[in-house]
Amino acid sequence: MTATPAPELGSLAAIAACVRTGERSARAVLATSLERVRELEGDLHCFNEVTIEAAEADADAVDRIVRSGLDPGPLAGVPVALKDNLCTVGIPTTCSSKILAGWLPPYDATVVSRLRDAGAVAIGKTNLDEFAMGSSTENSAFGPTRNPWDLGRVPGGSSGGSAAAVASGIVPLALGSDTGGSIRQPAALCGIVGVKPTYGVVSRYGLIAFASSLDQIGPFATTVADAALALEVIAGHDPMDSTSLDRPAPSLLATLHDGVSGLRIGVVADFLSEESECGDAVVSAAEALAAAGAKVDEVRIPELLLGLPAYYVIAPAEASSNLSRYDGVRYGLRVDGPDAETMNARTRGEGFGPEVKRRIMMGTYALSAGYYDAYYGQAQKARTLVIRAFEAAYQDFDVLLTPTTPSVAFPFGSKVDDPIEMYMCDLCSIPSSLAGHPAASVPFALNPEGLPIGVQVLAPALGEAVMMRVAASLEASAPRSARGPVTP
Amino acid sequence: MTEYETVVGLEVHCELSTTTKLFCGCRNAFGDEPNTNICPVCLGLPGSLPVINRRAVELALRIGAALNCTARRSIFHRKNYFYPDMPKDYQISQYDEPINVDGWLELPDGSRVGIERAHMEEDTGKTTHVGGGGRIHEASYSLVDYNRAGVPLVEIVSRPDIRSAAQARAYVDELRSILVATGASDGRMEEGSLRVDANISVRPVVSAEFGTRCEVKNLNSLRSLERAVEYEVERQIALIESGGSVSQETRHWDEGDSSTHSMRSKEEANDYRYFPEPDLTPLVPDAALLAAAGEGVGAMPAERRHRLSSLLGAGSDLATRTDGSTDQVVTVVDLGLDELVHGAVAAGADPRLALARAANEAAANPDAARLLDPVAFAGLVKMESSGRLSATQSKEVLAELMANGGDPAQIAGRLGYEQMDTASLDAIVDGVIVANPLEWKRYREGDDKVAQFLLGQVMKSSKGRANGKLVAQAFASRREA
Question: Is the ipTM value over 0.90, yes or no?
Answer without folding.
Answer: yes
